[in-house]
């Protein structure tokens, strides 16, 4: 049975995303503050934002960027992030956002797979980018540095970002449509190594309209943007949504509780989006009591399930409405949410279907719809669903069926009122503090170690981070003294911080199917049943 949203369908925009956000800018809009960088104090009005976007677009067109070519952005949140993002799109390009904490190898994979021609990078990531562009089959031609740095020390030409901003509007900019590709965030999907998710201008624009029931727009909204913009929830669910609603975006480069609370107090933040580990910090820290958070009206928790009790306690402590939203990179991201107008909905659920989203709940064994109230895999269809995975038709076919339904890998139930609850997960993906960690990627890293004969990685429950990666390791006979610290350090030197192995258990054998597939379910069951401390756990 196909389930439908209680809200009327939205009309999918037929314009480009920059035109949707800025095409109707009025003089009053132009004078309003669009962006405040809480770390530096730098501000931009909407008029200054659009002017800067056009300068970046003009500079890229002058460099010969062609429609559909890719530029990467490797940076934390700042007032420059939306300028670069929309500048690339305005030039007809496609932006692939990358984690600024990625290693050179991780960046090289993304640059290579996306065929990135240009890279915008914050100074903190410059060394890794310089190393990445030297790797085989990486085609980056120019690096644009978003801040003070000694330029020209790398293997390809380097340009100061300020030089792009000084570019006068001379070139004609292309006319784009909703069907053009806009962004290539990298996601592991339900399993495997990160893949480029092809999202169009129309996908992103439609999702902005679909998210309206979650938080009706306010002319006076000050939004705190602490969730990374390189994550689709930050990129479209905060950055673009805030700009579309003419809010003032206050950016933080990373989450630090004191800075987060101070920015809420200083800038009178009314709305913020968090992940469950931030919710835990807000509940447990005495710092909360020393800040005036009276302006805060709405807190949206995303990326991983939030417990009902914690959500209710957080509402009471902050004096703000707490809601949950649900989605995936592949759905731009939002498919479900708890609307602010529905205080009756359990705070531990993911709420109802957003406008224009259809869903099925399917028995993963039979492929048939489950009976009302029973558990099944959530499938979603709508104008926000990705075009597919870049260069990977097999993974695309496994994720989106012929009827257009995205198979989420999440097990849910739905009640008689159309309220959904996530109860389990089919997919192997680990969610560490809201970040996606693919077990297969970590296993590939570990198997390079000469002392490891075999390995399997799963996520284990962690009160602070939600889940953390645990490696089950079979030692090679040549390295009988390999210990947990050696395993952790080997991985830590090769991956971003959130992908680190946090726990290690040495085993005699990895459980596998007759076809050689790792039986992670068996490992998870054994982990859950164990009442003893994890072996060699540090």
From TrEMBL:
Residues 441-517 form the AMP-binding enzyme C-terminal domain. PROSITE patterns: AMP_BINDING (PS00455). Residues 31-390 form the AMP-dependent synthetase/ligase domain. Pfam families: AMP-binding, AMP-binding_C. Keywords: ATP-binding, Ligase, Nucleotide-binding. One of its GO terms (molecular function) is CoA-ligase activity. Belongs to the ATP-dependent AMP-binding enzyme family. This is 4-coumarate--CoA ligase family protein. It comes from Nocardioides immobilis.
